[in-house]
Amino acid sequence: MFQTIEEVTKHPVFTFFQEISNIPRGSGNEREISDYLVRFAKERNLEVVQDTALNVIIKKPASTGYENAPAVILQGHMDMVCELNKGTVHDFENDPIEFRMDGDMLYANGTTLGADNGIAVAYALALLHANDIEHPALEVVITTEEETTMGGAIAVDPNHFTGKIFINLDTEEEGKLLVSSSGGIKGKLILPIEWDSPSRNAVTYSLSIGGLRGGHSGMEIDKERGNANKLLGRILLDLSHKFSYTLSEINGGLKSNAIPREAEAVIVVEPQFTETVEEMVAEWTQVLKNELRAADPEVYIKLEKLNDAKQVFAKETTKSIIQALMLTPNGVQRMSKDIEGLVEASTNLGVITTTDTEVIFQNEIRSSIKTLKEQTLQQIHVIAAILDGKVETMGDYPEWSYNPDSAIRELCQKVYKDTYGKEAEIIAIHAGLECGVFTEKISGLDVISMGPDMYDVHTPNEHLSIPSTIRTWEYLLAILKEMHTIS
Fold first, then answer.
1. Within this chain, domains 5-182+400-485 and 184-397 share the same CATH topology
2. Where are the domains of the chain?
3. Active site residue 146
4. Whether 32 is catalytic
5. Residues forming a β-bridge with 216
6. Kind and range of the H or E element at 124?
7. Does domain 5-182+400-485 have CATH number 3.40.630.10?
8. Which one of 30, 145, 146, 446 is the catalytic residue?
9. Each residue's pLDDT tens digit, 108-157
10. Which CATH architecture has domain 184-397?
11. Measured between alpha carbons, how far is 136 from 481 in angstroms, rounded to an integer?
């Protein structure tokens, strides 16, 4: 279809995608892109609001003949994940994203592309700019900090909107209509450390687990991949049954929303037990290779002698940490009975961190049913009470529940069938979208989410299908054209 970047960017959607790609928009650094959106609206005499969270709301009146059609809220987020390849020189706060083509795919040059969710912004701008498109009244809302806290969506004032039809443009597979997503909350279980001195002849080891595949705690939680933190807990418990030892440090995982691939404990043992430790680690290596032979065939356990520890956890602290590792729920908690294959509730023990005073267990809890999310959090509260710890929470965001009577879903299905001669796939995901925030804010909101094919988002290999982007644009225009059929 296109041979060069120059040809691609003549299309209105890619014209605006390139324009916003010249502006910094990493999460937490949205001031410049937010101000650009305000200027864009004012230059076209469109009503615009920029709130204190830097969200931007732009309104465009209905085209002729669509004055009585229901208003549509179009939504995406302006921020992007900023990642680059090792050796790539790029300043995300100043440098534009450089495009490159490979066949019909659009990539960036060694960095994330930002199609998640810049392509939604580009769709919206192309719609707002055009004067020859049939559409109902449009209320476009572009939010901030979706990739980190959803703080932008949470801060939006619902009184800015009159529409009850909501189209989110943050889906990454063409031909799939997203109708539900999970809510979530981060729960930190915090245990205090009581320190002690090691015995004079004690031997210090690093006991680590690695080689696991990990993955997104929403999208891959049902793959039965090993959680390094939980596996480490099993090994530590088994060691404690054979001989007495103490911990002096434990750490694992990098992000609460990622299944941890690596974890490490520093253990201090009496010299007469060193041979036992080495034998048991060898046995556990075989156990895990057998258990995870399909999901994580590269799993390994490494035991390495360290310099003598200067201090260790008291025995009761060591015991409490092992108990917390074993008791903390992890993985799929319940599958949906309404949508086959959909995880309905899960939790992920994503990060363990040792500080000077505490060991912190960070859990990412998800569910499409609010009460199930609360149930898992209560389990963590109970564990904290038993072990004399405490719980802190953050990042609570609501679920988006399936609506069996959705008029916008029915219209999108009809338009897709009429346009492509086949059925659109109806899907739900066990990850968070801003749709849940808006359905909680605006009573009676009827929501759908869609988008073009994009791949490897959040990585420097992120790429976007050019023809899919154009087809999805045409599909969106066809939906807007038929909005007058919704009463």
1. no
2. 5-182+400-485, 184-397
3. yes
4. no
5. 258
6. helix 115-129
7. yes
8. 146
9. 999 999 999 999 999 999 999 999 999 999 999 999 999 888 999 999 99
10. 2-Layer Sandwich (3.30)
11. 8
